Amino acid sequence: MADTHTMKTPEHSLKNSGLNLRKRPNARLGLTEILLIGVVVVYAVVLLCGPIGAIAWNALNSGFRTVFVQLTSADARSALQLTLILAGSATFINTVFGIVVALVLERQNFWGRCFLNGLVDLPFAVSPVIAGLMVVLLFGRNGWFTPLLEQLGLRIVFAIPGMVLVTTFVSLPFVVREVMLVLAQVGTSQEQAARTMGASEWQIFWRITLPSIRWGLLYGISLTCARAIGEFGAVLVVSGGIIRSTESATLYIFRSMDDRNFQGAYSMSLVLVMISIGILSFMQVLKKRVERRS
Amino acid sequence: MSHRNAFAKLNLFSAQALNAEFAQRVNRLVVVAAIVLTGVASCTNSKPSTNKVILTLAAYTAPREAYGTGIIPAFQQYWKDKTGQDVEVRESYQGSGAQARAIISGFEADVAALSMETDIDKIAAAGLITHNWRARPSGGMVSNSIVVIAVREGNPKQIHDWADLTRPGLNILTPDPQTSGGAQWNINAIYGAALRGCAGVARDDPNAATQFLRDVFRNVSVMDKGARESITNFEKGVGDVAITYESEVLVGRQEGQRYDYIVPRSTILIENPVAVVDAYADKHGVRQIADAFVNFLWNEEAQRAFAHYGFRSLDQRLAEKLKSSYPSVQDLWTIEFLGGWNEVTKDIYGPQGVYTRMFAELHQK
Amino acid sequence: MNISITQSNGSPSRGRLSVRAIAILYLFGMILLPLIAIARTGFSAGLAGFWAELSNPLAAAALKLTVLSAVLITLINAFVGTMTAYVLVRYDFPGKALLDALADACFAIPTLVTGVMLVALLGPQTIIGTWLSGHGLQITFAKPAILLALLFVTYPFVIRSVQPVLLELSFDQEEAAHTIGASKWSAFRSVVLPTLAPAILTGCLLSFARALGEFGSIVVVAGNIPMRTLTAPVYVFGQIESENIRGASAVSLVLLSLSFSLMIAVDLLQGKPKN
């Protein structure tokens, strides 16, 4: 029964939340059941709601005005802008290459396919600081590629390209895995049919394959985006934290804690939490559309 | 299988009808991506427009306010008045050692304002500073402070001098000397004071002094990356005592934090250097303005800003004027007592150094 | 499903080959190459050098702390995660949708923000924090903070692994067992649990792998005291900052190998990928 990538990552399984929950038969709620529910709910409230509530409380405690002032400061605006650039670039790169990789891994068969498939999982297994270390090793002062880049006048570490690189790395697997899953489910029958009717490979891709994977793809894109926005460890290693230049939103929060600018830290934290939850809600909407259409 | 079927069913929908919608979506994505990439391209290696110059300052953690709120705005005004040019100063603050390493690893700072001479010398050794930075006023030093002991309001633990730090059960904060310049000043102060007989151990006895250092470090609970992180941790309620720059305590109190500090009977004078990083300043074409910035630091305006944010002034007149704001130190000595930074780097922090061996032994237990 | 599109001589078309080449180059460049770089750097002083870095007391303590914490929170997650999944699938109660959404939220929130939130809630200058330290309990800047942070970020893993399997299950058998006299727990244990076991295990492995690498939340909230609350990823960070690239690479390799083996184990648990 084990399906190839059914539960490969919890991110896949995130899809399952909300789905069909109403259609289960309701068990009777006796004492044991209530206790069980109670334990689960209390755990969740204490562990999860506490911190989330604390941030909202601390940020909004001094009023919306303070939050607004903090977030419209030059540093904060620059940090948010950089985060959006990083997330946008990483998402774009991972979407394009993710689709390519997914197609190759799912639709083609060749020696070494298993190995490549395994490689895709590596960014999940890597601590973000290790991702940063990788980029430093390749592009830092004594980096493998540094002499070449110096010739070309390109700066990678302590500059935005390095941050884009690590953000792309840590958010790499999502689109690949989601698209592979959908490709596996959809099958090749439509593509085969089109091929016998004389369509070219590109036409098949653009008109049949791409539309068929779009929900999975969008889901993968949302996950990629959420991950990229929240990236911290890797960009901390690789960016130098130059204020208004290579300081992303997460780095801004980190520095604000040091600067005793707690209002700034909490306000920006609240913004990031809201953006993440926004992306999640968008994913929930996608799920509803899937539900409705079936 | 229900949810998987749902998914499969949806995909077998008429591809045509949804195709147009999807094509639109993809088009939008491509447009957004194009904008984003242009944004990225324009942000990297940005060349300043003709009437605006960008100067990058790499500093250690303690003088954040002094530079950020005091000196940089003053310099911007000064430069604008003098040349009509707008200067944007991009600042980065991290532990002195970490900052030096970042510069050597490719962080293209035009000016380095660090905590200790050795960090500037490291950058010079890497070939990035080619002029004699010590040839400037005060031997290249721009600010002074002293090592003090921060305690909770009212000094509940009754700490009066270095000797009290070895009390069992005391929780001490000091940064990590691997990344923080302040940490090294702290350790030098403790070791030096012990050698000078002001820590309750025998005078001029390196073994006794090392033992004293070990007894103090037995009580160290958190070692942050920089002096600033260390004091903010203390402010958050961690630890009983923090060994830190006097300037950090004064700035903290300015910001409304409430704690006291003890000036030990014997402590070290902290002197902080600044230098233009020739390689990068020339590369960015901002040599002139970098030189002007560094020279500006010895102006009265800048020295006053340093003083306002807790540092002791180099300027004699200013120091006289502000004497009452700063407690006097009975026995104030400099790094020369320990043989100068070159000796200290080897004897105390080298692989066989006093601190290195002490720390290893302490944590082997 | 893996019908390759062949030319008349039986080999894949040029189009497919070039796409394959792009995919291979991309993965090699983005993933394999950095991995090789770390391996080479970690072993740049040979096996002896590698071992020396690992036997550094701080490194060893950091690795031990990381692994032990990961084990502990994985065990907790196994229980709580399964219970939560069961409760979400089986019963209807007020706030169910919110609980479900919270699990997703944990995943989406940046880890640094998690750490900041924990300090904002339990730090030394908060109401809860002062109450706790008044009673001699230290959470922030001590080991419990590490556990809390890890529990927060790994909350959804077991839940989301187990939920789909539970959704597929019909509960008739379990109810039947209960009606003929088995207690609810033994009905659950003999009927449902065996089916869930692989899913629980998968969730645990993922949770463990995630916990090994956690950085953002821990660096803010744990205090990073060497030998006491310094975890391996934070140690690696410190080594990078101190230019001990070899030490950083050595410890990274250990962490990488551990996590990566876990991912492979997950792969095997779910059936081999098509060959």
Give a brief rundown of this model.
The complex is a heterotrimer of chains A (294), B (365) and C (275). Chain A is mainly α.
Keywords:
heterotrimer; A: 294 residues; mainly alpha; 16 helices; 74% helix; disordered N terminus; B: 365 residues; alpha/beta; ten-stranded mixed sheet; 10 strands; 47% helix; globular
Describe this structure in words.
The complex is a heterotrimer of chains A (about 290), B (about 375) and C (about 280). Chain A is built from 16 helices and no strands. In chain A, helix 7 runs parallel beside helix 14. Chain A is globular, with a radius of gyration of 22 Å. In chain A, about 60% of the residues are buried. Chain B is α/β, with parallel strands linked by helices. Chain B contains 15 helices and ten strands. In chain B, strands 1, 2, 3, 4, 5, 6, 7, 8, 9 and 10 form a ten-stranded mixed β-sheet that branches. Chain B starts with a helix and ends with a helix. Classes of the chains: A mainly alpha (about 290), B alpha/beta (about 375), C mainly alpha (about 280). Chains A and B meet through helix 4, helix 9, helix 10, helix 12 and helix 13 of A and helix 1, helix 2, strand 2 and helix 8 of B.
In total, how many beta strands of chain B? 10
Q: Which range does the strand content of chain B fall in?
A: 15-25%
In round numbers, the mean pLDDT of chain B is 83
Unreliable stretches of chain A:
1-8, 16-23
Low-confidence stretches of chain B: 1-20, 40-49
Span of the ends, CA to CA of chain A:
23 Å
Instruction: List the secondary-structure elements of chain B in sequence, H or E.
Output: HHEHEHEHEEHHEHEHEEHHHHEHH
Number of helices of chain B: 15
Rg of chain B from C-alpha positions? 26 Å
> Biggest sheet of chain A, open or closed, and with what strands and sense?
none
Overall 3D geometry of chain A?
Answer: globular
Radius of gyration computed on alpha carbons of chain A: 22 Å
Major beta sheet of chain B, specifics?
10 strands, mixed
Q: Determine the oligomeric state from the structure.
A: heterotrimer
Counting DSSP E segments of at least 2 residues, the number of strands of chain A comes to 0
Largest interface: A-C, 115 and 116 residues
User: What's the helix-strand series of chain A?
Assistant: HHHHHHHHHHHHHHHH
Helix content of chain A: over 70%
What is the count of helical runs of chain A?
16
Mean pLDDT across the residues of chain A is 83
